[in-house]
Amino acid sequence: MMTMLKNDVTAALFLMIALAGIASAESGAAGKDIFTAKCAVCHGADGSGQTSIGKNLKVRDLHSPDVQKQSDADLKAVISKGKGRMPAFRGKLKEEQIEQLVSFIRELGSQK
Ligand code: HEC
């Protein structure tokens, strides 16, 4: 009886670890999906801003040091409050989604 219980607990632990792994892989991908849906029109699918709207609005390449040197808090503030012709996304995106976008922008920075 005790061994049965121990096996169940072990199985439950393995399941939790497996699910946690899936969840974290999804949150990296989630930022990219949101970016493609909401941001790519202006910033380009790859964040380089090479779209006709992006060139018009003179968006900076999100890979660039000028963008990457800003803190996560700075980037979150631009996304939620907007800046110049960059629209505010507060209320349109959840806090968690804005954080996923910041992680995605950091991924761009590490690609170069
Ligand atoms: C309507 C076009 C447009 C859309 C849509 C848009 N942006 Fe922007 N974004 C801009 C412009 C223009 C700027 C430059 C603002 C400035 O510096 O005056 C900018 C700036 C930024 C910056 C600051 C980079 C810098 O130049 O320092 C970040 C980060 C950013 N956008 C992220 C996003 C994210 C994430 C989304 C999607 C949720 C998004 N943007 C959607 C136009 C857009």
What does this structure look like?
This protein has 112 residues and is mostly helical. The chain has one domain (2-111): Cytochrome Bc1 Complex, Chain D, domain 2, CATH 1.10.760. Helices cover 70% and strands 0% of the residues. It is built from six helices and no strands. Helix 1 (2-38) crosses helix 6 (95-111) and helix 5 packs across helix 6. The termini are far apart. The model has no long low-confidence stretch (mean pLDDT 87). It binds heme C.
Give a short summary of the structure.
The protein is mainly alpha-helical and 112 residues long. The protein has 6 helices and no strands. The chain is 70% helix and 0% strand.
Tally of individual domains: 1
The whole-angstrom Rg is: 19 Å
- Please state the second-level CATH architecture: Orthogonal Bundle
Q: H/E order of the elements?
A: HHHHHH
Heteromolecules bound: heme C
Number of helices, where a helix is a run of at least 4 consecutive DSSP H or I residues: 6
Roughly what fraction of the amino acids lie in strands?
under 5%
Helix content: 55-70%
Q: CATH fold name, please?
A: Cytochrome Bc1 Complex, Chain D, domain 2
The overall pLDDT average reads 87
Cα separation of the termini: 57 Å
Rough outline:
elongated
Poorly predicted residue ranges: none
Class by SSE composition: mainly alpha
CATH class: Mainly Alpha
Count of individual beta strands: 0
CATH superfamily: Cytochrome c-like domain
**Main β-sheet, in a few words?**
none
